[in-house]
């Protein structure tokens, strides 16, 4: 049991996938159960933080009374809620698996099957984390990077490009790590490029260790 060492801290966390509609019955999405983001929200709430959890479409529940949950569906909705919630937060963690593309045209009635192939044109969604990085003031901003090849290199690239204070690199090709399961294996890298490897553990235990890393870095930054 951790002490209430996050009392008075306002934490904003995003979790889960986003869903991008093609027509009323079909959509594009990303893999994510929301477990990693929900574990972070619960771990922070148990340490006394006031937590806002922005969740894409998931089937799990947030248990702690100190968690205010806001449900969203699309990347655009997640962007608006994260942007509205950002200003007064101390720590912002983006564990969500946001769709990078959405159909350019959303059909209002069900698309009819064609003979042979069909083409759906996709357009980029907003990069929520990058936009938050651009307007960051005192917030400690943490991204996740789900990677399959040279994860540390890509993670460092995202840390710099998105003006983050830290990134949690998730090599989703490893057994026991990544989407849907109850465990994860991650590497925490802060903006001084100090690297901390967290061994395989439950997502809740990983969440506790990530919060330890974040709180330590916030303390070091304030000296
Ligand atoms: O939910 P689980 O089943 O428990 O799985 C957990 C997880 C594997 C989804 C999680 O640990 C994780 O790695 N989340 C990030 C997934 C992801 O989309 O990574 P990315 O490398 O594509 O994005 C990098 C960062 O930019 C992420 O913080 C993401 O939230 C953010 N992003 C990405 C695209 C976009 N349009 N807007 C964003 O804000």
TrEMBL record:
It catalyses: N-[(R)-4-phosphopantothenoyl]-L-cysteine + H(+) = (R)-4'-phosphopantetheine + CO2; (R)-4'-phosphopantothenate + L-cysteine + CTP = N-[(R)-4-phosphopantothenoyl]-L-cysteine + CMP + diphosphate + H(+). The chain holds residues 180 to 402 of 402 of the full protein. GO terms for biological process: coenzyme A biosynthetic process; pantothenate catabolic process. Its EC number is 4.1.1.36, 6.3.2.5. Its cofactor is Mg(2+); FMN. This is Coenzyme A biosynthesis bifunctional protein CoaBC. GO terms for cellular component: phosphopantothenoylcysteine decarboxylase complex. Residues 6-216 form the DNA/pantothenate metabolism flavoprotein C-terminal domain. In the N-terminal section; belongs to the HFCD (homo-oligomeric flavin containing Cys decarboxylase) superfamily. In the C-terminal section; belongs to the PPC synthetase family. Pathway: Cofactor biosynthesis; coenzyme A biosynthesis; CoA from (R)-pantothenate: step 2/5; Cofactor biosynthesis; coenzyme A biosynthesis; CoA from (R)-pantothenate: step 3/5. Residues 11-223 are annotated as: Phosphopantothenate--cysteine ligase. CTP binds at residues 100, 110, 144, 158, 162. Catalyzes two steps in the biosynthesis of coenzyme A. In the first step cysteine is conjugated to 4'-phosphopantothenate to form 4-phosphopantothenoylcysteine, in the latter compound is decarboxylated to form 4'-phosphopantotheine. The gene is coaBC. The keyword Cytoplasm does not apply. GO terms for molecular function: FMN binding; metal ion binding; phosphopantothenate--cysteine ligase activity; phosphopantothenoylcysteine decarboxylase activity. Binds 1 FMN per subunit. Keywords: Decarboxylase, Flavoprotein, FMN, Ligase, Lyase, Magnesium, Metal-binding, Multifunctional enzyme.
